[in-house]
Amino acid sequence: MSALSTKVFDDYDEEVSYEEVNKIIRSRALKNGSDIEYLIEWKDEHVPTWVPFDYIAKDVIVEYEAPWWNTVKKSEETILQEVIKSGDKRDIDPMDEFGLNLI
To answer: Which residue segment(s) compose the domain that 8 sits in?
Structure first.
């Protein structure tokens, strides 16, 4: 069991004032496949929080997703396998708002 799986994380609360994003820790697709949430590590004292895609600056998402998408685009199978096996819990089968696979 990883250290991340033993921690409790908050869900996003629109009433709370969050500070700047430190980094994205991981991603997950919602059960109905309608959206993606990212686990955000904050620069302030907030515990990591699951935040819907629409509430995160796109440049922050690009920074997190770029290594994955660059590998997929290059189709370098050995590097792609390393990314998949890295254990970072990245959602490797994301879907867009129409339910279509993004790859």
So the answer is: 4-85
pLDDT tens for 31-82 read 777 788 999 999 987 889 899 888 899 889 988 888 777 766 766 677 767 7
Estimate the crossing angle of helix 58-74 against helix 77-85, to 10 degrees. Answer: 130
Domain of 62, CATH number, reads 2.40.50.40
What pTM, to 2 d.p., does this model score?
0.59
Q: How far apart are CA 74 and CA 98, in angstroms?
A: 25
Question: What's the total number of domains in the chain?
Answer: 1
Cα dihedral 81, 100, 88, 31, rounded to 10, equals -140
